[in-house]
């Protein structure tokens, strides 16, 4: 019977494995497949070769099954431990503590922009008949730059003094004198951008007769 040889396909079928596994275990046991004379492409094994291959394959399979069994036992033991832990946690469940709801937020009101009041600077007190340059220009709706140029050129008389105000008031430097108001009135009445104030006309006995101003 040992002289009877069977092909690799039949040998793998008898040992319940595929041909690749058969060739692998044949190399492990040192068995070489032989080709018969009538067909050099065919690979055959003897009955003794199959016994060696089957014995080694059985030992390896038993070890694999043993490792699988151990792993399965470990997995089952872990599952049992986790189940027992879950059961203890459910038995010792902590009491539910009610959490109070937060108080409702106040309603959001629409954002409104309040108008900013226009603050007027309080100037220091001046002697009777005098007026600050700013007041002279604003009361007559007159350009401040033109009034300043007239004051600096001497066409309108100003006081060389600076009058300090009380607490919270601003000092007034070089205000227009009563004579200067009369000079301003004489110069500005011929202009189209002059508007009389409630105290117009401004007159003074010593007011000089200025020359006719040019349109600016």
Tell me what you see in this structure.
The structure is a single chain. The chain is mostly helical and 216 residues long. It folds into two domains: 5-90, Multidrug-efflux Transporter Regulator, Chain: A, Domain 2; 122-216, no CATH class. The chain contains six helices and four strands. A two-stranded antiparallel sheet has the order 1-2. It has a two-stranded antiparallel sheet with strand order 3-4. The longest helix is centred in the first third of the chain and has 45 residues, at 47-91. It is rod-shaped and about 160 Å long. Residues 210-216 have low confidence and may be disordered.
Short recap of the structure:
The protein has 216 residues and is mainly α. It has helices spanning 8-14, 19-29, 47-91, 133-139, 144-153, 178-188; strands spanning 5-7, 44-46, 162-163, 172-173. The protein has a two-stranded antiparallel sheet with strand order 1-2. A two-stranded antiparallel ribbon has the order 3-4.
Topology:
Blueprint: E1 5-7, H1 8-14, H2 19-29, E2 44-46, H3 47-91, H4 133-139, H5 144-153, E3 162-163, E4 172-173, H6 178-188
């Amino acid at each position: 019977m040992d002289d009877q040889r069977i092909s690799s396909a039949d040998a793998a079928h008898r040992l319940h494995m595929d041909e690749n596994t058969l060739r692998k275990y044949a190399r492990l046991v040192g068995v070489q497949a032989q080709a018969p004379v009538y067909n050099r492409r065919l690979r055959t094994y003897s009955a003794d070769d199959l016994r060696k291959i089957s014995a080694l394959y059985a030992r390896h399979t038993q070890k694999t099954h043993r490792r699988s069994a151990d792993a399965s036992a470990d997995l089952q033991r872990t599952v049992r431990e986790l189940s027992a832990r879950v059961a203890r946690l459910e038995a010792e469940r902590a009491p539910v503590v009610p959490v109070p709801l937060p108080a409702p937020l106040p309603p959001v009101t629409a954002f409104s922009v309040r108008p900013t009041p226009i603050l007027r600077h309080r100037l220091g007190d001046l002697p009777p008949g005098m007026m600050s340059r700013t007041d002279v220009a604003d009361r007559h709706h007159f350009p401040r730059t033109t009034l300043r140029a007239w004051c600096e050129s001497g066409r309108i008389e100003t006081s060389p003094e600076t009058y300090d105000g009380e607490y919270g008031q601003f000092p007034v430097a070089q205000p227009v004198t009563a004579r200067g108001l009369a000079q301003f009135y004489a110069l500005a009445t011929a202009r189209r951008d002059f508007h009389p104030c409630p105290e117009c006309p401004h007159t003074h006995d010593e007011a000089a007769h200025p020359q006719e101003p040019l349109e600016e």
